[in-house]
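Ticket #4471: structure export looks truncated?
Reporter: QA, pipeline team
Priority: medium

Steps to reproduce: submit the single chain below to the structure queue and open the exported record.
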Amino acid sequence: MTFQWITELPPAFITASAAFVSGILGTLLTIFVTPRLQHYFWKRQKREGIRLTAGTEVNRLAAEFKSDYLFSSTLSIHAA
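Actual output as written to the record:
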C-alpha cells in the first residue's frame, strides 16, 4: 500500500489542508483545555485567599493575646 496519491496533490492543497487541520485541532484544544486551566488557577487563587485570611486572623489573635498578656502581667507586677 503506497501513498503515491499524496505526491500527486498540488502543494497549495497540502498547505491549505494542513492549515485547516491545524486550525481545527487548535480550536478543539482551546475549547477543552482553557476551562480546565481557568478552573485550576481559580482554585489556587481561592485557596491562597483562604490561607491569607487564616494567616491574618492568626496574626490578629496572636497580637491581641500578646498585648493582653503583657498588659495584664505589667499591671500585676506593679500592683504587687
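Status: closed, not a bug. The export was complete when the record was re-opened. Leaving a note from the reviewer for reference: Residues 66 and 72 are 10 Å apart (CA to CA).
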